[in-house]
Design goal:
Layout lengths: L2 E3 L29 E6 L17 H4 L7 E3 L5 E3 L2 E6 L5 E6 L13 H11 L2 H4 L3 H6 L2 E8 L2 E6 L6 H7 L26 E7 L3 E6 L20 E6 L3 H9 L5 E3 L15 E7 L3 E7 L9 H10 L2 H9 L4 E2 L23 H10 L4 E2 L5 E3 L2 E2 L1 E7 L7 H16 L2 E7 L1 H10 L4 E6 L5 H7 L18 H9 L4 H18 L3 E6 L1 E7 L2 E2 L17 E2 L3
Length: 540
């Protein structure tokens, strides 16, 4: 059946509400002017918005780079740089109609040719190698521009998650492709956003200034026209206590990434607002490598899954401010399946029996199990760029519990981005700890599709044949109920049966702001901090 959707601007939007029940926006009239300083946890590994895979960098990059469509809380699409879209009868061709009044911040024209160039370059491995967009764009058969304001993208095969990718790709100007800054990002890489990149001081901050010509905000926005703020600066403050101290002392106006210990500083404090929201996508999980080291044995993987007791660790570290998860996607994702809740874990008796059965029967003087003279050692790789939200403390607690309960030596290794890429390529690791915020099943497919089939972040290295028909079935239907059924079966196989991953907790974002800062909040669908377009200051 033909799917034809033409999205239009909303006449009104419901008032967003804080987690405390207080209105997100003050009743007084928004004011123009002033600059905002935002303390952030993560420095982008690249300023190219298409190649940066860091969820935490979205806040910083979305002020300058935009997409064809935005999304409502239920995941449906509304206008942004495109006024609408339709899908062909055979489900293979996606056609977008574009606004005719948009330009890039460097003055270049936003038109069908510019949009088509973005999708064509996303197909080029020389450009996107190592990025998940390569696998998604690799599904494209052709890109056509019937006229200056229409782009049609035809796929090789039906693939229902493609709309999420196509609608959400952050678009850059035509001249960007010939810039020496293309891979790293920078002032040459122009977008269409309400702010323009002015200066990047590595390790310190990134500064944006208002785009005076901006007047094409999405239907999610609370106003139209240029941003209220004259500029916004994001200061890189990786330590939670430092961010908290900077806000309490007035050095910054707003922060994100508030630790469980520090949340109490802002909750019910009239001088500040505090909000939090769960992310979508894949929970922060330990993915266990089925092709290397001790985790090749399903009994060893099952022992870790069954033997650890994650809930009290989370409670101790985060003071009840984080959400335990059991499955392969977020509790706020439309595809979430809660059937695994409480079905595994905290069973050290079973876990130790599994390890005995796997031949790890003896222990060294340090209490670590051994077999054939070799210790039961599993190396966990954590990319330094994604060490946030006290994850280092969490991994240390899991390490201690695995040693004490199971006699397993979990070695935690923090690596830079270059080493991370190399380790993933060689496959010589025991586990990788990671999460991501992709939606519509893209996150699931990225993690469980075999590497040879395009699974760009298949950290478990699984190529189990049972998974392929489940992923294929989910990709061929637009019916979320059917897709949820397929993913539920995959979840049962991947976690409960094969222990390919050990879900830990669902990442969330937190925002604390001074009382004079208004308009901060979260994106309606992915629930990550929204950009600064609607933010205004009642004093400056």
């Amino acid at each position: 059946m033909k799917s034809s959707v033409h999205v239009r601007s909303l006449s009104a939007l419901a008032l967003l509400v804080l987690s405390s029940g207080q209105p997100l926006y003050a009743a007084e009239q928004p004011q123009q002017g002033g600059t905002l300083t935002w303390g952030v946890e993560t420095e982008p590994n690249t300023l190219n918005p298409q190649l940066n895979g860091q969820s935490k960098a979205e806040l910083i990059l979305r002020v300058a780079y935009e997409s064809l469509l935005a999304r409502k809380p239920d995941g449906s699409y509304i206008p942004w740089l495109a006024t609408g879209y339709n899908v062909s009868d055979d489900g293979k061709t996606y056609t977008f109609t574009l606004r005719d009044d948009v330009k890039f911040s460097n003055g270049e024209k936003f038109d069908a040719a510019a949009v088509a160039a973005n999708f064509r370059h996303a197909q080029d491995p020389a450009y996107c190698a190592g990025s998940s967009i390569c696998a998604l764009a690799g599904r494209i058969a052709s890109v056509a521009t019937p006229d200056a304001h229409t782009v049609s993208i035809t796929l090789k095969d039906v693939y229902s998650p493609f709309l999420s990718f196509a609608a959400g790709l952050k678009l850059i100007s035509p001249s960007s492709w010939s810039s020496p800054q293309l891979k790293s990002g920078g002032t040459d890489i122009a977008g269409t956003g309400p702010f323009i990149l002015k200066r990047y001081e590595k390790g310190q901050q990134i500064e944006y200034v208002r785009n005076p010509d901006y007047h094409w905000a999405s239907a999610n926005a609370k106003h139209q026209g240029a941003a209220y703020l004259e500029g916004v600066t994001y200061r890189f403050l990786p330590e939670s206590s430092v961010r908290t101290g900077a806000l309490l002392s007035g050095q910054v106006d707003v922060i994100e990434g508030v630790s469980g210990n520090d949340a109490g500083e802002f909750k019910d404090n009239p001088d500040f607002s505090y909000q939090h929201a769960l992310n979508t996508g894949t929970p922060y999980s330990l993915f266990l490598n089925v092709k290397y080291g001790p985790t090749q044995d399903v009994n060893v993987r099952q022992a870790i899954l069954q033997g650890l007791d994650i809930s009290p660790i989370l409670q101790s570290i985060y003071r009840g401010e984080r959400t335990r998860v059991w499955g392969i996607t977020s509790p706020v994702d439309p595809l979430y399946d809660a059937s695994l809740s409480g079905k595994y874990g905290n069973n050290p008796t079973l876990a130790n029996q599994l390890l005995d059965d796997a031949g790890w029967k003896t222990r060294g003087a340090d209490g670590i199990r051994t077999k054939d003279g070799q210790p039961l050692r599993i190396e966990i790789i954590q990319a330094q760029a994604t060490v946030r939200d006290q994850r280092d403390v969490l991994l240390q607690a899991i390490q201690a519990q695995a040693r004490q309960r199971l006699g397993i030596d979990l070695k935690i290794r923090y690596v830079d981005s270059g080493t991370y890429t190399e380790v993933r390529k060689t496959g010589q690791f025991g586990s990788i700890a990671n999460s991501n915020t992709d939606t519509d099943g893209i996150d699931i497919e990225n993690h469980y599709l075999p590497v040879e089939g395009g699974g760009s972040i298949n950290y478990s290295r699984t190529d189990a044949p049972e998974i392929i028909p489940l992923l294929k079935g989910a990709s061929l239907t637009q019916d979320n109920a059917q897709r949820k059924t397929f993913y539920g079966q995959l979840q049962n196989f991947a976690v409960l049966q094969q222990a390919l991953a050990i879900p830990l907790y669902e990442p969330e974002d937190q925002i604390a702001a001074a009382a004079y800062v208004h308009g901060v909040g979260f994106r309606p669908f992915k629930q990550m901090p929204e950009n600064a377009y609607d933010v205004w200051l009642s004093k400056h």
